[in-house]
TrEMBL record:
Membrane-topology descriptor: Peripheral membrane protein
Annotated GO biological process: SRP-dependent cotranslational protein targeting to membrane
Protein name: Signal recognition particle protein
Binding sites annotated in the UniProt record for GTP: 104-111, 187-191, 245-248
Keywords, comma-separated and alphabetical: Cytoplasm, GTP-binding, Hydrolase, Nucleotide-binding, Ribonucleoprotein, RNA-binding, Signal recognition particle
Domain observations: Composed of three domains: the N-terminal N domain, which is responsible for interactions with the ribosome, the central G domain, which binds GTP, and the C-terminal M domain, which binds the RNA and the signal sequence of the RNC.
Family note: Belongs to the GTP-binding SRP family. SRP54 subfamily.
Enzyme class: hydrolase
Primary localization: membrane
Residue ranges that the Swiss-Prot or TrEMBL entry lists as coiled coil: none
Subunit structure: Part of the signal recognition particle protein translocation system, which is composed of SRP and FtsY. SRP is a ribonucleoprotein composed of Ffh and a 4.5S RNA molecule.
Localization, UniProt: Cell inner membrane; Cytoplasm
Domain SRP54-type proteins GTP-binding positions: 266-279
Amino acid sequence: LSERLSGVFDRLTKQGALSEEDVKTALREVRVALLEADVSLPVARDFVKKVQEQATGQAVTKSVTPGQQVVKIVHDTLVDVLRGEGDPGALKIDNPPAPILMVGLQGSGKTTTTAKLAKRLKEREGKRVLMASLDTNRPAAMEQLAILGSQIGVDTLPIVKGEDPVAIAKRAKTQALLGGYDVYILDTAGRLHIDEELIQQAAQVRDVAQPRETLLVVDGLTGQDAVNVAAEFDDKIGVTGVVLTRMDGDGRGGAALSMRAVTGKPIRFVGLGEKTDALETFEPDRIAGRILGMGDIVALVEKAQETIEAEQAEKMMRRMVKGQFNMNDLKMQLEQMLKMGGMEGMMSMMPGMGKMAKQVEEAGFDDKIIRRQIALVQSMTKKERANPKLLQASRKKRIAKGAGLDVSDLNKLLKMHRQMGDMMKKMGKMGKGKMLKQAMK
Ligand code: GDP
Ligand code: MG
């Protein structure tokens, strides 16, 4: 994709804001890439629309092409869509023994994932885990789990010939309770295709076990089919999370995006091989990079943006030491602060401001306040921003009203601006060159 995009954009040399045409051309390529990565058509279409809205009009970072910039926006949007709420690796397994139900088609990797998950819970969280195979369809399925269990040192429910899945689930529950296990994982039978019987059986087991987590195991190579499977399982059984297996293969992982978009269920884990330790928590960045095949471009654009920010800071610094610190500068600083996650990041760019950082922090300086302050600056006229001395009572009233705040809020902002300006001037006298150099380190 990256090559194709840079081809398209080599011809576009102009810099500045992304035009609608730029974005459209780039997104045509992106859409193809998504489809090639097995993202379903409606999902790809929706996604591209979303990116289009975000990208049009955005400023192009110096030293990257518009195409590269679009790719970065696509990547970020993709990560956003893929990311579920909360920590994907954190399973609800308090109140022992907590049942986990594994569902999915035959061969999707349920049994393997059951063992991987058991090993992870045992080793990382120190849980006592019991595994039980409910697969009465395939002749050697139960033995398969027992063998995996002995490999990883996790107990499996003893096999009783002739029992049905519901009876096994009941026995697993009793055993988990009596044996003092923290978690028990029920590995169900799958079918090659979804059918009534499979769903009915899974539903019965669910009703008996009342699982805390129901994980749908999906073969990451199956692409679009996976989405229908996920929707069906979620509809009939109720799924709390998805595990994508075979992500060590050649697949691009487009199923991940489709599945998130269609079911809204979080992807919790990713299977990366046949071995019992080949399970990782889901990381949206990695899958996004894989779907688009363009990790290097994202890194490039990020780097370029960092450089620009440093340049802006340097420019501002120069103005500051000359005593030209106006409201626009202050607004830019406030915006930087928001972006860098508060005071700390900003202070690292501006030496000598530690004391003020503390004061500001004590005053309860959080994102909400910063946003309000930005709103205040925004409701000033151009002239007022350049010369805050103009701000007399009536202007103050108008500005505060425009931002939906009180004059006292505005006064606080003005005081802060004055203090910062004074400090800048003092620092300027201390020696411009030295400080600037230090600041830019
Ligand atoms: P089940 O029918 O859903 O229980 O599927 P199995 O757990 O028996 O897995 C079917 C096959 O897929 C086995 O050969 C596994 O070793 C293999 N498998 C499962 N997960 C992965 C994975 O993440 N990567 C690879 N390469 N193979 C996997
Ligand atoms: Mg199995």
